Amino acid sequence: MDRKKLLVKVCGMTRQQDADAGMELGADLLGFIFHEPSPRNVTPEQAAAIATRGVLRVGVFVRQSPDEVRQIMATARLDLAQLAGNQDPDFCRAVGPEQVVRVFFPERHASIANLEAELLRFAGCMRYALLDAGSSGGGTGRSLPFASLADIQPPAPWLLAGGLSAANLAEALSQCSPAGVDINSGVESAPGLKDRAKLEAAFAAVASFR
User: Fold this and answer.
1) Cα(51)–Cα(118) distance, integer angstroms
2) Which residue among 8, 167, 173, 209 has the highest number of C-beta atoms inside a 10 angstrom radius?
3) Rounded to two decimals, what is the model's pTM?
């Protein structure tokens, strides 16, 4: 990976206008959530209908089987599968390691060493690791303690998630060095509805790190 460019993922796409705004501002990845309890949930068909160009399309999966993940990826025209449940390394291999973004929750671990041990279990099973806030799943709107991740060394490039917005992105990136950031609730006017001004402010906040 070229570490000269910070990757930016905008997750929770539900509307064409939000995908257009993300692409215009320079997003590298756009995310679609396939988890019915989420207010940002979309069907594979809805995701497929949102046109994109020049970005990677990412599906967020929690409870599906590997076969269901692959079927949804085909229908929704996805490039990557973000696995945010309790999927094990075998699950990742069944989906295809080069297509997997595996989510980890540092707050589940008593120490960074324990987190790194879990990350190592997935060596060779994922294209990216994603570190998110919360202990029972993402979408909390809270942030991780950025400084605690300053020296973390996952076996794959990692993305930072959890309550990121224009207000804290520069702070986060000055305290730790992810390969990318994942923004969602911090750039919304309501769940699933992105706010153009908040998106612009978030991209401005990371401009000097890209």
Assistant:
1) 36
2) 8
3) 0.94
DSSP code, position 3: T
> CA 80, CA 193: separation in Å to the nearest integer?
22
Distance, CA of 168 to CA of 160 (rounded, Å): 12
* C-alpha to C-alpha distance for 58 and 33, rounded to whole angstroms: 8
CATH number, residue 38: 3.20.20.70
Q: Which domain holds residue 51?
A: 7-209
Number of domains observed in the structure of the chain: 1
Does the residue 13 lie in any domain? yes
Question: Does residue 66 belong to any structural domain of this protein?
Answer: yes
Nearest Cα neighbor of 101 from 161, 170, 53, 38 is 161
- Contact at 8 Å (CB) between 146 and 167? no
What token pair was written down for 76?
Answer: 């929704």
